[in-house]
Amino acid sequence: MKPLISNAYDIALNDLRKCYTDKGILAGRNSKRYNQYWARNSFFASMGALKAGDFEQVKRNLRLFAALQGKNGAIANQVSLRLQPRYKLMIGSVMDASALFVVSLARYARETGDFEFAEQNLPQARKALLFLKSKDRGKDLLIEESVFANWAETVLKFGRVLYTNCCYFKALLEFGELCAMLEKKDLCAESRAAAAGVKERLNALFWVGNYYCDWVDFRKHDYFAADGNLLAIDWGIADAAQGNMILNKIKQHQLNKVPLQTNYPLYPIWRIPATLLPLMEYHYHNGSSWPWLGCLHAIALRKAGRQSEAKKELRKVAEMIAANGTTTEVFGSDGKPLRGLFLRSEHPFSWTAGFFLERPSARKQNQ
Question: Which pLDDT band holds residue 278 (cuts at 50, 70, 90)?
């Protein structure tokens, strides 16, 4: 019988490859909503694809989004099978797509050494960053977004959102690394300095004592959001002490029973669209558990030196993959795939698959 982690790894790899096309990486395969090229899904999935050695597929995906970049520099949030791009969800551009394009391009260049492709797409990466910079309306180094404009698009947030600004920081940092690879010293220094400024500002504005608050509009909203807090650990925004406090917060509120719950406490009813209130969909981004966050939790624990806890969390995700025989989008508190009147948890789900594969020790942890 194949060891748990190895079995889950093989399922995840197979699922991810099911989402490949000759154009890029689809979010899923079963539903009309996800049988499309969603930027964040495909760029996060690309991390696992690179670890699996599927370099050409990541290159295709980058080429797709680069070709459809908006005139203002924005990377499309979503591209249909007919290659029709969409940049907004409601009234505002979705900004993590542009940031994650830059991150994905830099990682591709680093993993493959394909500096010719990186050089060709450097102007698109720079335009994406300039688009993001234009959203710093308050001129405080952080970017603002409109309502329903990040991955948690069923929660009413606007202004400076932790998750989005973590993505912005990482894009600036990775663009600097990309420029270093291409020996563009001035651009490298400029981008690294900008990243340092964003990091400093994030810590000054968002840190509330033992975690980063969720978002800031006219005031701070002190919800604990797993996405931005864990990315802050993984991407080096949080220092070691901060990282351990964040991880202890997750442990304190048992957000990892089903890895990993999106937020604590739950957002109030009025922050969720009224059409979702009587349905399971109400919890979609409000207390449900997402395996990609479980994988990110394992990364953060490992980075903090909490190896046994990291291994335990990775095994939890592996057990979910093995039990369902596929990589699933989102789970309820009962550990079952979330199913509402209009929602069926997607599978295979490239975001989950890619994040599980991205673990550098996934094949080794096979006990």
Answer: low
Beta strands in the chain (DSSP E): 37-38, 78-79, 85-86, 160-161, 213-216, 220-225, 263-264
- Which residue ranges make up each domain of the chain? 4-358
| 146 within 8 A of 202, measured Cβ to Cβ | no
User: What are the beta bridge partners of residue 289?
Assistant: 261, 331
**What integer pLDDT is reported at residue 91 of this predicted model?**
66
Q: What are the C-alpha distances in Å from 233 to residues 99, 109, 290, 302?
A: 18, 23, 18, 10
- The C-alpha atoms of residue 155 and residue 245 are separated, in whole angstroms, by 25
Give the pLDDT band of residue 1 (cuts 50, 70, 90): low
- φ, ψ of residue 273 in degrees (nearest 5): -50, 135
User: How far is residue 216's CA from residue 219's CA, in Å, rounded to a whole number?
Assistant: 5
Query: What is the pTM assigned to this prediction?
Result: 0.96
Instruction: Give the pLDDT confidence of 299-334 residue by residue, as tens digits.
Output: 999 999 999 999 999 999 999 999 999 999 999 989
Architecture of the domain spanning 4-358: Alpha/alpha barrel (1.50)
